[in-house]
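Researcher: For the record, we're logging two predictions in this thread. I'll number them. Prediction 1 follows.
Model: Prediction 1, sequence and structure:
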Amino acid sequence: MPQFATYDRSKLAIHICRVSDGAAEIIRAIAGEATRDPDLAAAVEHTVHHPQRAAFVELLRRGIARGEVRPEAACRLYADVLPALLTYRMALNNQPVTEYDAVQIVEHAVLPLLAAPRHPHRRSHAMPPVAHPD
């Protein structure tokens, strides 16, 4: 597993659990209403999703600058991965996110997806995601 300079798995897991604790019911309620109310949907996008995504993209850019994150990862698609996994688990499956779950999600799904290649001189054959106009 890559060694991310700022990655402290216990602190990250505790933060994820704190943020996700009790969020499932709120997420389900807002998502349900937002499908019927375009103004609410726009407000949620503007006040929640966009700032969250921008913060994740900035975090990814800092990881790229340190050589820890693949260069194509500083985009909307990669920034949505962790929130999508957490939302799926909490809101759609009605499961809590424990510290163990948070560590497993980050270490086995998120970090491998974001990690810069160990051999930067070797080219990846993976297609980078298409940039989304934000």
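Researcher: Logged. Prediction 2.
Model: Prediction 2, sequence and structure:
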Amino acid sequence: MLNFEILKQKVMKALEGRLNPINYKLTSNWFAGFVEAEGGFYTSSKGQPIFTLTQHMSDWTLMEAICLFLGCGKVAPSIRAVRYAGQDGRPLAVIQITNKDALHDVIIPMLEGRIHSLKKCRTASLGES
């Protein structure tokens, strides 16, 4: 079984000194494009809305920068990443936001008018309370 902490240490050592989350200059337009490519809205089995962004583990610092930019969320390894990283070579860093206030007050307003895919419909329905 893959030990996530060992994997994270190896990735962070490879990135050490190269990236710092505060060095990223993110904008709302960049974020919306990133969400179209790498994010999504889902509903849990209990009906709770979930916003998720997924990236390769080597982009952990970028994911931390996104959390700083949003003022919410936390980067975590995907359960799938820990279980399958050795098999498919894709350890993943994931941001999941389930707080309804953060979704309603931060995520949805930042995406309004900037999403051009089917996610636009899903975002609009999540904004309705």
